[in-house]
Write a structure and sequence with these properties.
By secondary structure, the chain is α+β, with helices and mostly antiparallel strands. The chain has 16 helices and 11 strands.
Length: 404
């Protein structure tokens, strides 16, 4: 029986309308277990589909026998899928033969098509095996961040080799008078400073609780503009009071090699930066440079007090980026949670602190839920259903020390 046929059949052999009745009679545990199997079969079927599509694309069978202009158009018409779905299938299919580990893991039902697609544009024959291991351990969101960092690294190397412009040279601000919108491209350190400034202002913008966050950011932006307008009653601040933190190894501060494109540091909540940028930030009083140890971590010391220091909170946020509960994408309104509850005289260490959104912070404190492990390596979350979920730090946390 083919995987496609199996996905249409319940364990009892029911199909069609009978399957709906059969599903209704099953317990939650049985339905969850069946979904695990169905999604594994779905991934395996999609893996086989992209491999076949890749071969048909190489043969240009869509044109010779079907009269289509591209594999993407042929897939959309023949199988009744949307253009974006057809585009993903065709795109991954073109790369399938060059990525045997990633696509092989997809065909085995071990990773989803979304995970493979997230890495397809940056994966090479040399990185295929490593990225396959990351795909099995990370979420799609984390893989997209990995791909973005890899793409930035490749672009930096390309610019260095060709002598093309830096991120600073690509800056711009554009206005669309018809839509009353702005589009801005900033260098990494300027983007981080701007975002930090606007978010800090937005948090103190008066609100009845119903004003959306993006509207508060807009109000903060207008307040900043008006405070700098000549004749404004607001005081113009010449030195930024907002933290922009760059985490760098010590040798990056004293580097004299002249290799200005080497990725040697990380701006919190943004991405990797080069030696030149690190040294420029070190001379600017409006930024904070956090010197990291050889493992790329800012601190390991504990504190015999309940509340984390500001530095620890910043490091937890840099490590986790978002709520650590698997599948949660909340990043803005989060709390630092003690994995092992704090007791008088106890320690507040980085490995015992995890970032959680308001919802999941309350959830893990409820009866039937547990969170255990080392937040610097792996956390285990178990709920009332007894399913074991794992959560790992953001893959970029130690990327600064990887200069390959």
């Amino acid at each position: 029986m083919t995987p496609a046929t199996q996905t249409l059949t319940s364990p009892s052999g029911a199909t069609g309308a009978d399957l709906i009745s059969a599903v209704g009679a099953r317990s939650n545990e049985e339905l969850r277990a069946r979904l695990d199997e169905v999604f594994r079969l779905k991934a395996a079927a999609e893996g086989e589909a992209v491999v076949i599509l890749g071969e048909l694309d190489r043969r240009e069978a869509f044109s010779e026998d079907e009269g289509a202009t591209s594999t993407e158009a042929w897939v959309a018409e023949r199988f009744g899928v949307s253009a974006p779905t057809a585009r993903v299938l065709a795109h991954v299919g073109k790369k399938a033969w060059d990525l045997p580990h990633l696509v092989g893991s997809l065909c085995a039902g071990e990773v989803s098509l979304d995970k493979v697609r997230a890495l397809a544009d940056v994966a090479t024959a040399g990185s295929d095996r490593e990225l396959c291991a990351q795909a099995q351990a990370c979420s799609v969101r984390q893989l997209l961040d990995v791909a973005r960092t890899a793409a930035e690294r490749m672009r930096s190397r390309s610019e260095s080799a060709s002598g093309s412009g830096s991120a600073h040279d690509r800056r711009y601000a554009r206005f669309n008078d018809t839509c009353r919108t702005m589009s801005v491209q900033l260098p990494p350190e300027a983007y981080a400073e701007t975002k930090s400034c606007l978010e800090a202002r937005a948090k103190v913008v008066p609100s009845d609780g119903a004003t959306p966050w993006d509207q508060r950011l807009c109000d903060a932006f207008l307040g900043l503009i008006r405070s700098a307008t000549p004749g404004s009653s607001s005081r113009v601040v010449t030195a930024s009071p907002y933290f922009v933190v760059a985490h760098v190894p010590l040798d990056a501060l004293v580097d004299e090699s002249g290799q200005g494109t080497e990725l040697a540091g990380e701006l919190e909540e943004d991405g990797l930066i080069d030696v030149e940028t690190v040294q420029r930030l070190a001379c600017d009083a409006t930024e904070v440079v956090a010197v990291d140890d050889e493992a790329g971590h800012t601190m390991y010391e504990g504190r015999a007090k309940r509340f984390p220091t500001d530095a620890q909170r910043r490091e937890v946020k840099r490590r986790d980026r978002r709520c650590r509960f698997p599948g949660c994408e909340a990043a803005t309104f989060t709390n630092v949670h003690h994995i092992v509850p704090w007791k008088p005289g106890g320690l507040t260490d980085l490995d015992n602190l995890a970032l959680l959104c308001e919802f999941h912070h309350h959830r893990v404190h409820r009866k039937g839920w547990s969170m255990t492990g080392n937040a610097n390596t792996e956390l285990t979350i178990v709920g009332p259903s007894d399913r074991v979920m794992t959560s790992r730090p953001d893959p970029r946390w130690t990327r600064v020390t990887d200069r390959r």
